[in-house]
Amino acid sequence: MIPMRDSFRTRLGFILAAAGSAVGLGNIWGFPTQVANHGGAAFLMVYLVVVVILAIPALYTELSIGHQAQANPVAALGKLAQRPHRVGAGLGKSVGLLNVGGAVLMLSFYHIIAGWMLAHALGSLALAMQWPEAHLALTTSSLWRDLVFVAVFLVGTGTIVVRGVSNGIEVWSRRLMPLLVVLLVVLIGYIAMQPGAGAGFARYLQPSFAGFSDPNLVVAAMGQAFFSLSIGLGGMMIYGSYLDRNANIGQLAVSVAALDTLIAFLAGLLIIPALYVAMGQGMQVSENGQLIGEAQLIFNVLPELFERMGAAGPWLGFFFFMLLSIAALTSTISLAEVPIAYLLESRQHSRRRATTLVIAVIAVFALALVIWFVPLFAWTVAYVTKFQLPLSGLFYFIVLGWLWSRSNKLKEKAREQWRFRLLFWHLRLVCPLLLLWVFVDVAFAG
Ligand code: PHE
Q: From the CA of 423, how far away is ligand 1's center (Å)?
């Protein structure tokens, strides 16, 4: 007997899991940094437009491919890219395998950063408990610290995914996502009451014409939106494949994107005012109009700001780094499911064996990245984010728009109604061209 495929039990469970995948370090850290470096409110406005015209279509496309194929990315892309007279199937499978490999690479660097967040969370807790030696050890970068925390985080990811989709991923997304929102709102409330926060709100929410003059604004917003919605590594595709046949993918894509964008917006309401509070206290937060190093923002500027806030400070630090750790965890579980589902379905491993194997391989890669941090870390991040994400995203659009012919719902509807025809052409032509623009600009110019 073929065992039944695991699936999401409820619509809300899916929305929280997919939003959990989307809401990650990119929202809490990446988005506010981009806002600060690309014209404040101008970036926010362009970002919102880009989410609608490019990112939601891409999310819809990735989810639909998984949903139609009800299979892991290698099998799904192989199946849908198939056209009798073309090499589609082989190409589809190759891109699927690239996704599996890309997910493993991304997981190896993402776990390192997530480990830093967890170390800093515990470091803040140590400070609250008045244990300065532990605080220092946990917040100072060292080989052992990084290795220990990568391992801890990997165990966290593994413990959730080994339980499967409905009992692991869905259950934990339902627990962690509400917690994340509560932490974020509490932190925003606290920072908003500090002197200087008002100027930050103004910079974030009142567009100035000067803000729009940044030539990189649009490309930066498109790259950020793509990364933020977890497109291009098969994470959303595999989640889509666990939805039941009658799911309304269009509606779900819009809900997930709305939640992701809301959380990014809220993170901006926290970080931008916090930067202004820090400036008001005489701290240096930028140089030549650019934020001083992004890592410094998270690991130096904000912790220093928290330390100046008296007894509440260590708790603020703890909440803040827990927020980042939780955001990271709900993203790592979605990505880990990509290689696991492949081993499960295409290589007939048990879930336990597949999970162990995948976690072990990520551990080896992460070990290499920690040991040869320079230059491997930056290369890996650049490969995944600058090449893999936009190129796979482009391929997904080509599959939906050009290769997948049978039972392609959007294509069928496009024959009957002009609204859908417009949408279909948007997906098959406009979106790929926009992505190509991002790819060329990011890969060759910067
Ligand atoms: N969306 C995640 C974030 O914002 C990153 C991610 C990208 C996760 C691709 C999975 C797949 O941090």
A: 26
